[in-house]
Write a structure and sequence with these properties.
Helix content is about 20%, strand content about 35%. It has about 675 residues and is an alpha+beta fold. Among the domains are: about 325 residues, 3-Layer(aba) Sandwich (Rossmann fold); about 40 residues, no CATH class. The strands form nine sheets. It has an eight-stranded mixed β-sheet with strand order 32-33-35-34-36-37-38-39, with helices on both faces. Strands 3, 4, 5, 6 and 7 form a five-stranded antiparallel β-sheet that branches. A four-stranded antiparallel β-sheet has the order 8-9-10-11, with no helix packed on it. A hairpin with a 2-residue loop joins strand 25 and strand 26. The longest helix has 19 residues. The protein is globular and about 70 Å long. It starts with 11 loop residues before the first strand and ends in a 7-residue tail after the last helix.
Length: about 675
């Protein structure tokens, strides 16, 4: 492969007496002419390589056909209407519809009309309690920065000015007079996408006034916090404020809005654990917490004195991880049991009423509605069960199919099974392996190993039309539940953080070794894939065990572990990662596994297709740029090292269907071509 020439600079940093070269520091300036020229040159090489794969268009056509079916979201009720999202098949963005009982559905908001290329997406929508007003957020080019538009539901007329420069925010209406939202000070011109977003601020916007007049409610100089979120209880009596400095652990505050000029009262005054108020009845608060309960529990307390010493346990901790919700005047305890769903319904006094009978072993999500609703909706999916919407009766505990997808897929032809394998230190790790029935375990099957392993995020079974293309070709799809995730609660999460992060890579490597030992695949047929923190996972493991994998597909990855905290919201990830400035030991640990720094010249690395996007302002593209440049320089084998940089796209949310299809076709073509399988129509 002939790659574009990547210039080097003599940039060095010193950490605790150790000098570290950073020859590609200039690529951190993603707005510069030099970087733009480099991106253009790299994309040209990548496009030329992928265009020569004879079956890439066949894959794209199959993906397009598979994706071309009606897709619906769970319905939700606001005012006199039921709202739902629908995609007719290949629409770039799903359309928001609304419907009155007994009437035809009508289009309410169509994001496909927001921009010519459909790269402006709907990033969130929140209604006032009576459903008469709404605020919706717009993301342009996949950016985390949004605009907020206020609309009157009855006639879709715009109310007041559009709010700008909003980031990582929900919208919490207080009556019909205004709402709470959060944002940061916008970085300086020229660094809008990469500049540090350090301190969140919670504002109240009064309808009919200019944004510059919005009242600062929490944050700022008095209470500087990196993440601040707000919500109201359903009766709108209490404002709930959650404040945090990292992605794990939060303070909790309430303000009684029924009392004029009431103070903001602290419920939890530290960042040690995670807490949220999920409901109230009068002054009785229902709180989810993992304080002294790593798998989570529900407690109650009176709002007059809500400190933890007064909490009373309502639903105690179990061996399974709890994710609660409320609806129809009930509590729903959605548990993760060995990475699959178990859902129980309780009354508000904590009495068990029903176990929801699910259609199989998989993932159930939803179980939320307003208090007066008699029924609610949930979605169920697995690797071989296309996502289906169910309507659930709160009174009887019975479910019925509400919307079944029309995807071209026959589940009876496929098998999905869970295994447990031993990691390097003997820890048992679950993994679900999916493949065509009748698969011969001869080590000759291509396989895709997908992982994440971080930030308390759980990978539970979910159907993917993209993966179907690989399964049809006889490939094996394997997803392990690595430490660092949330599948077994906070202890499992902590076991994959900071100076235990190597456990995550060991778990992933052990998953690959299990697949090879069990003859599902071999090193010559095995691909690995992950995005964001999962991109870090792929980069680190391919650097540590380049012999184990044939193909690597790291996407929007955190690749420079010495400098990740210097961009956008990166400093908030320090709970999981630690930083190079914390201590000599932490620096040395990060330096050892940091993908950009762990690569070595002359080593034979797997065929690698790095992917990122020019508007990714969460994991800035410089991570992927520097990793790809280093890998192209160090590659000691013949396998290609390519980078695909999507334009006018971000970290992944809101990506148009056509861009998603194109990106997946590239990856699957690269994977099948470099594992020697080819593609059978």
């Amino acid at each position: 492969m002939k790659y574009p020439q990547t210039k080097t600079d003599n940039v060095k940093d010193t950490y605790f007496g150790t000098v570290v070269d950073d020859p590609y520091r200039w690529l951190e300036d993603d707005r510069s002419a030099d970087t733009k020229a480099w991106v253009t040159a790299q994309n040209e090489v990548t496009r030329n390589y992928l265009a020569q794969i004879p079956f890439k268009n066949d894959i794209k056509q199959r993906l397009t056909k598979l994706m071309n079916y009606e897709k619906y979201s769970q319905p939700f009720k606001e005012g006199a209407y039921t709202y739902f999202y629908k995609n007719s098949g290949l629409q770039n963005q799903s359309v928001l519809y609304r419907q009155k009982e007994g009437e035809e559905a009508e289009i309410f908001l169509d994001p496909n009309t927001f921009s010519k290329d459909a790269t402006t997406s709907l990033a969130g929508i929140n209604f006032s309690k009576d459903g008469s007003l709404l605020a919706y957020q717009l993301s342009e080019g996949g950016s985390d920065w949004t605009k907020v538009v206020v609309m009157r539901a009855s006639d879709k007329s715009i109310v007041g000015d559009t709010l700008v420069d909003v980031k990582f925010s929900g919208i919490a209406w207080q009556g019909n007079g205004g709402f709470y939202y959060s944002s940061y000070d916008k970085p300086a011109e020229g660094s809008q996408l990469s500049g540090l977003t350090q301190y969140h601020k919670l504002y109240f916007h009064q309808l009919g006034t200019a944004q510059k007049q919005d009242q600062l409610v929490f944050g700022g100089d008095k209470t500087p916090r990196r993440y601040i979120g707000a919500g109201l209880t359903e009766d709108e009596r209490y404002l709930i404020i959650s404040a945090a400095n990292s992605t794990s652990g939060n303070e909790l505050y309430i303000k009684d809005l029924s009392v004029p000029n009431s103070p903001i009262v602290s419920v939890v005054d530290n960042f040690d654990q995670n807490h949220s108020i999920i409901d109230n009845i009068g002054t009785k608060l229902y709180i989810y917490t993992n304080l002294n309960a790593p798998n989570g529990k529900i407690v109650t307390v009176d709002a007059s004195d809500p400190k933890p010493e007064h909490w009373a346990t309502l639903i105690k901790e179990t061996e399974n991880v709890l994710n609660p919700s409320t609806g129809g005047g009930k509590l729903f305890a959605n548990y993760i049991k060995d990475a699959v769903s178990l859902v129980l319904q309780y009354d508000m006094g904590g009495k068990l009423e029903h176990e929801i009978k699910l259609p199989g072993i998989g993932t159930a999500t939803g179980f939320g509605s307003k208090r007066e609703e008699k029924e609610l909706f949930y979605m169920f999916t697995s690797y071989v069960y296309p996502t289906t919407i169910f309507k659930y009766s709160v009174a009887t505990g019975k479910s019925e199919v509400y919307k079944k997808p029309g995807v071209d897929f026959d589940p009876s032809k496929y098998e999905s099974k869970q295994v447990f394998y031993a990691s390097k230190d003997g820890t048992k790790v679950p993994m679900i392996i999916t493949y065509k029935k009748g698969l011969i375990l001869n080590g000759k099957n291509p396989a895709l190993l997908y992982g994440y392993g971080g930030f308390n995020i759980s990978l539970t079974p979910a159907f993917s039309t993209s993966v179907v293309v690989l399964l049809e070709q006889g490939a094996v799809y394997a997803v392990p539940n690595l430490r660092g995730g949330g599948e077994y609660g906070e202890k499992w999460h902590i076991a994959g953080t900071k100076m235990q992060k190597q456990n995550v890579f060991d778990d992933f490597i052990a998953a690959a070794e299990y697949l090879i030992k069990s003859k599902y695949t071999s090193s010559d047929k095995l691909a690995i894939m992950g995005g964001s923190n999962g991109g870090l996972l792929v980069g680190a493991t391919m650097a540590q065990r380049p012999d184990l994998f044939k193909v690597a597909l790291p996407a929007v990855g955190v690749m420079d572990m010495l400098r990740y905290h210097k961009f956008t919201a990166g400093a908030g990830w320090s709970f999981d990662y630690g930083t190079s400035e914390d201590s000599k030991e932490m620096f040395e640990y990060l330096h050892r596994y940091s993908p950009v720094h762990a690569l070595k010249p002359g080593v034979k690395y797997p065929a690698t297709l790095v992917s990122t996007a020019d508007h990714d302002d969460r994991v800035v593209p410089a991570h992927s740029f520097k990793f790809a440049a280093t890998l192209q320089k160090d590659q000691g084998g013949d396998a290609p090292v390519l980078i695909s940089i999507q334009t006018n796209a971000g970290h992944g949310a809101g990506k148009p269907t056509d861009k998603a299809i194109e990106e997946t076709a590239d990856k699957w073509a690269f994977l099948l071509y470099n594992t020697g399988l080819g593609y059978q129509k």
